[in-house]
Amino acid sequence: MELLRIIGIYPETISDGYGLRYAIYFAGCAHRCPGCHNPESHDPRRGEPLTVERAETICAAIAANPILDGVTLSGGDPLLQPEAMAAFLRLVKERTGQNVWCYTGYTLEECLADPARRECLRWIDTLVDGRYVEALRDLSLDFRGSSNQRIIDVGALHLFG
Ligand code: SF4
């Protein structure tokens, strides 16, 4: 399994979901949405590898910050390499117990249809899904992206028994 790669971390941000969040931006996206606001994130070879040691360091930093409201995964597309992401998500949940948001270009339905992405949903609390549509940008009601993206309470879907 290839290592995930990180192109940026914001230890405290109010721009990536509800409240104050630890945001991690992952390299790599295959969607190529016209008008993408972050094309430099598309190459999965960019950034620094997420080694086991780095993952533990990140989790320790999250767990040590008592004022965080949660963790946000963005990119790129965090679900481009879903097997590796599921393992990281599980580690974040086990080490920090934090609420997790994930911004992805895949729709919820596409995630459910793919076993590895479905497994990622097990560890995600809120999914902001769907490809970016530049023409809808001015209508957007969410934190960023376009108005066709949905903010989905994954836990409320009761996908896992
Ligand atoms: S999913 Fe996001 S990062 Fe990927 S091409 Fe679309 S807007 Fe850009």
Automatic annotation (TrEMBL):
Iron found in the keyword field: yes
EC number(s) reported in the record: 1.97.1.-
GO molecular function, one term: [formate-C-acetyltransferase]-activating enzyme activity
InterPro entries named in the record: Aldolase_TIM (IPR013785), NrdG (IPR012837), Organic_radical-activating (IPR034457), rSAM (IPR007197), rSAM_sf (IPR058240)
UniProt keyword Iron-sulfur, yes or no: yes
Required cofactor names: [4Fe-4S] cluster
Domain of life: Bacteria
Record Pfam families: Fer4_12
Keywords recorded for this protein, A-Z: 4Fe-4S, Iron, Iron-sulfur, Metal-binding, Oxidoreductase, S-adenosyl-L-methionine
PANTHER family in UniProt: ANAEROBIC RIBONUCLEOSIDE-TRIPHOSPHATE REDUCTASE-ACTIVATING PROTEIN, PYRUVATE FORMATE-LYASE-ACTIVATING ENZYME
Function: Activation of anaerobic ribonucleoside-triphosphate reductase under anaerobic conditions by generation of an organic free radical, using S-adenosylmethionine and reduced flavodoxin as cosubstrates to produce 5'-deoxy-adenosine.
Family to which this protein belongs: Belongs to the organic radical-activating enzymes family.
This protein's name: Anaerobic ribonucleoside-triphosphate reductase-activating protein
